[in-house]
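Reopening closed ticket. The problem is back. First fold of the pair:
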Amino acid sequence: SRIFHEATLSDVEVLEALYAATARPGAELVRGVGGIAEGVPEEFGEIPSLPKFRSDGILLAHAGGGAGLFSSMIGGWVNGEMGSNPVTVEVRR
């Protein structure tokens, strides 16, 4: 939490940076590229930038005090209509 505060980044700016950093050109993700059998269908190769996550697919939550500097990503969470909605609760002592 301290890092975000010191960087004076808004949650929107952090999310925009994460979406930009995780997008890749479709040509890099086509099946068979680089000898990797998995990938997207060939027609996706023409797309300049394929997102890793849906536009509402990243939940940004930060917590903690001045120590620690820990971060984590939880992959594979299906939210929205097909999945579940995460719930966060502030914990104070």
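Second fold of the pair, where the issue appears:
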Amino acid sequence: MAKAKVKALLSTGLAALCSHIKQCATAVSALANTTADGFDEVDDVLHEKQDITAAVPFTIPTTGWARDSTLTSYYYCDISITGLLATDIVDVTPQPESHSVARAAGFIPTESMAGKLRLRAASVPTAAIKAQYHITNTVKYTE
């Protein structure tokens, strides 16, 4: 009788163990597929071309500069840019022939606002500065 009970227990236990192993295999397979899909999505984002505009030439004027209560030790000048969003990143680069004037003015990083680019400098430029800007649209990366 003991042999019969052991045989029955082994057969039932083995079936339960096999069933549990199959469930684990299914769960691991689903996890692997989900992980692979996640890697594919990350890969798509990393390899898509950034939404950057072509270089746009412009002139930073010597007029239109003011101070505000935000950064009292810097002057600011707003440059209108149609379609600019507050979330956009604007990179401004002075042309080589204007570099010394831009450097003497002491520019700090730009601020993007709806429809305008805010430039800030420690002093008002002594001459007009030839420059260019590139806009990187960040909306699709923040949604």
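Update: turned out to be a display glitch only; the data is intact. Residues 1-48 form one domain. The chain has a mean pLDDT of 85. Please close again.
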